[in-house]
Write a structure and sequence with these properties.
Strand content: 5-15%
GO molecular function: oxidoreductase activity, acting on the CH-OH group of donors, NAD or NADP as acceptor
CATH topology: TIM Barrel
Bound molecules: nicotinamide-adenine-dinucleotide
CATH architecture: Alpha-Beta Barrel
Number of domains: 1
Oligomer: single chain
Number of helices: 10
Strand order of the largest sheet: 3-4-5-6-7-8-9-10
Distance between the termini: 38 Å
Organism: Vagococcus acidifermentans
Family: Belongs to the aldo/keto reductase family.
Keywords: NADP, Oxidoreductase
Helix content: 25-40%
Pfam family, one: Aldo_ket_red
CATH class: Alpha Beta
């Protein structure tokens, strides 16, 4: 069910499904979506400083009225705030906007060259100070992870990357599994553009499920944490209804076979 979790390297339980809020507008739209999601039973909310909606995420959390310890809130340090002191300050600013005294997961949003190792030292400090219950990275290739792990005291617990049936990321998933790093999928629905795929809709028809639900179920069965975005109450509910069916091994492989190594977003070796 929706409170089904996966254990991070430090023992923290991370929900397997969450709500992404990139492009959910600050104000009523974001606050309402977060409230609906939590009322539906979502525990994980994924935001970022650069989404400019942390304040509304906080409002949605409070409006839902669920005890803080039942929620799992993620935010991220943006590229222009990387570095040691600036990351510490960015965490405090995010907490203030969210109206929280800790987040469950704090991530380095992108591997800014020449900066991300210093940023990681700040992440370790934030973790030790209890301002984040877990720390990790986003958009890191294996070589970025190796670079951090060479000097880290605390290893990254999560790597949030673009991942969907057109970009299945098998080598990176294998690397992360070996290093006890949980993989989290961003743009799991290909930003909505994979939902007319025949393979996905055909599999969905068998179970009375949509293509979106088939993809999210495929994530869960691969032990990938997934954070589809929607601000529509019906879709928020639809995306959560994935714990009452199971894809066969053959169907899992059919979906794996849709891989094209094709990105909707930037390559972490080449972004601004
Ligand atoms: P997504 O793959 O979740 O797709 C979202 C789109 O699909 C929206 O336009 C929505 O209207 C549509 N949609 C959602 N559910 C649907 C349904 N059931 N039926 C039909 N359409 C549906 O795309 P995303 O927002 O890019 O990614 C999800 C989250 O991942 C983001 O909100 C954000 O939290 C995170 N993210 C992180 C990074 C990063 O760099 N770390 C980058 C992009 C996104």
């Amino acid at each position: 069910n929706l409170s089904s979790t996966i254990q991070l390297a430090n023992g923290v339980a991370m929900p397997r499904l969450g709500l992404g809020v990139w492009k959910a507008e600050e104000g009523k739209e974001a606050a309402q979506a977060v409230q609906w999601a939590i009322e539906t039973g979502y525990q994980l909310i994924d935001t970022a400083a650069v989404y400019k909606n942390e304040k509304s995420v906080g409002e949605g959390i409070r409006a839902a009225g669920v005890p803080r310890e039942e929620l799992f809130i993620t935010t991220k340090v943006w590229n222009d705030e990387q570095g040691y002191d600036s990351t510490l300050a960015a965490m405090d600013a995010s907490l203030a906007r969210l109206g929280l005294d800790y987040v469950d997961l704090y991530l380095i949003h992108w591997p800014v060259a020449g900066k991300y190792k210093e940023t990681w030292r700040a992440m370790e400090k934030i973790y030790k100070d209890g301002k984040a219950k877990a720390i990790g990275v986003s958009n890191f290739h294996a070589h970025h992870l190796e670079d951090i792990m060479a000097d880290a005291e605390i290893m990254p617990m999560v790597n949030q990357v673009e991942l969907h049936p057109h970009l299945t990321q098998e080598p990176l998933r294998e690397f992360c599994a070996k290093h006890n790093i949980v993989v989290e999928a961003w743009s799991p629905l290909g930003q909505g553009q994979l939902l007319t795929n025949d393979v996905l809709t055909t599999i969905g028809n068998k179970y009375g499920k949509t293509a979106a639900q088939v993809i999210l179920r495929w994530d869960v069965q691969h032990n990938i944490v997934t954070i589809p975005k929607s601000v529509n109450q019906g879709r928020i509910k639809e995306n959560a209804s994935i714990f009452d069916f199971e894809l066969t091994e053959e169907e899992m492989q059919l979906i794996d076979g849709l891989n094209q190594n094709a990105r909707f977003g930037s390559d972490p070796d080449n972004f601004d």
